[in-house]
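Structure, all two chains, one model.
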Amino acid sequence: MTYSQAVLNGDRLALARLLTQVENNTPEGRAALIELFPHTGKAHLIGVTGAPGTGKSTLVNQLALLYRKVKDWRVAIVAVDPSSPFTGGAVLGDRVRMRDLSGDSEVFIRSMATRGSLGGLAQSTANMVQVFDAAGFDVVIIETVGAGQSEVDVARLAHTTLVVEAPGFGDDIQAIKAGILEIADILVINKADRPGVDNTEKVLKSMLELAHPTERVFRHHGSTMRTPFDQTKGEPAPKQDSSSALMWIPPIQRTVSIESKGIVELAEAIARHVAHLHQNGGWVLRERTRLEVELEALMLEALWNQFLEKVPQAQYESLLDKIVQRNISPWEAVEKLLKGRSK
Amino acid sequence: MTYSQAVLNGDRLALARLLTQVENNTPEGRAALIELFPHTGKAHLIGVTGAPGTGKSTLVNQLALLYRKVKDWRVAIVAVDPSSPFTGGAVLGDRVRMRDLSGDSEVFIRSMATRGSLGGLAQSTANMVQVFDAAGFDVVIIETVGAGQSEVDVARLAHTTLVVEAPGFGDDIQAIKAGILEIADILVINKADRPGVDNTEKVLKSMLELAHPTERVFRHHGSTMRTPFDQTKGEPAPKQDSSSALMWIPPIQRTVSIESKGIVELAEAIARHVAHLHQNGGWVLRERTRLEVELEALMLEALWNQFLEKVPQAQYESLLDKIVQRNISPWEAVEKLLKGRSK
């Protein structure tokens, strides 16, 4: 029996082994990914991102516990740590996690540290997520730390992206988060029992208005007219989504994850976002974007490998020598290499 | 007269215009880069990275001021803000900067926000740096914020990488910085007048020992034997570099940049690192690595453009549709596209 068959049959050990194969990009791993691909597309992919110290891992644990208890969903967690390109920083978080979730065979946790390029990590994460999706996990939570590109990559991968903040991170956090707010589907203020929580929410709200000018216009519309959908339902529309059936205004959810406070409400906000995506075509759009990014990455890899096969190492090294000596520019070297290939 | 000739003649306005051309990747920009390339390879490239709130920008300003006053060097600053992929967060920092450095025609400041992929930003930054290098700037300081890949990219680009910390960032900073320490040539504890500075230094020191186990062995050797180089100089070897002529142990420098404290000592540490790189061949090695990364990036871009020209958009879209419908896996689609090309 192949890895992929065993995984489809629910073999947990085969799953663990396949994940390692996939992470190491082995031929067996790639073969299994192709076999599993038709079985993907069912899981809800949730991205969770935020600075260290905001309590992301505990929040993810609580959410996973809730999904287990209330929904009986199978939950996978992929913890990505791009801040640690050399040492395996993700391992520490896992220990904390295991305390809460270990022993539950319907929860699967996998952590990854960056190796090689960030592009490689994004690709590797996408592959892991596909394995979990095919293996029948209802929810795959992708957790990442840090600022910048890694978060954008997670947002590209996920259907729903949570950005986690915490009060008392100082004024400077505002600057770094400006861009990140724009990828948030839901904003979480964790550690909301800390002083300064009202101010954090105030700051986030005003930043949201800057980041989502379009929604602001829609919100304005929404205050004077209701959509037919809201009226026929005969019940008050969800608070954060009342403005329009088309636009999503990221709600701000307060949680105290170590005390399990606000987790139910957060799960409800996530469910509303899923409903919203299905309603306005966003789900299909995000799937398509995600798979297009993946196709491009694979295509680039294939083109590069094809190139390496055709250009002798000695020719490449000799050109690099000339560049280092400033006898030829990198752009001219590329011209030469492209010509060499077509011969 | 072409842009590049004007830039080589020291025309500041032409430089500003060329940087815009290069950032926008125009044909004129690319042509100028090729013309300027033989004139590069002279500037000292200094990377400065660290979390927001550590006072990086002020530190960079102070260092630039010192280089101007004491060395009469021409200084370029490239401020990269990958944390803000959508909005231009880098602009705010510039205002602060201009207050200190404006009016000095031998200082040139340029800021960039992320547009498109991170790979694109790294490439764009590398191109900017080349223009400054060719234009005769003695030092190019590349400043970046955030955690993860962007810092690794800066370290690849720079000869000397400064990682800036500040006391009182909480315990969690330790986790995120584990990987980043490994790219540091010099560690700076800025805002060193704050309480907790001794603890920050203690933590950094113990992390350094974890991150550089090899150097630790060398340090042990160094305590019992001196290198010939140190002896012939007839003066005490620099504190941080006394252990070995081959290995570099990242020194920890304390600064209070808003009061200009510790800047002279920091500049001395940087000068020691430059001397160290020249002495052990590290300078040439870093140049070669940097240019190899650049050649690879350009080659990938060229291969991708070649591919896009050969594969009709309709064929690509139709394959993507099939992937979204799970009729074909992305890996099989790549196979098809590669075959289509070779026909």
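The radius of gyration of chain B is 23 Å.
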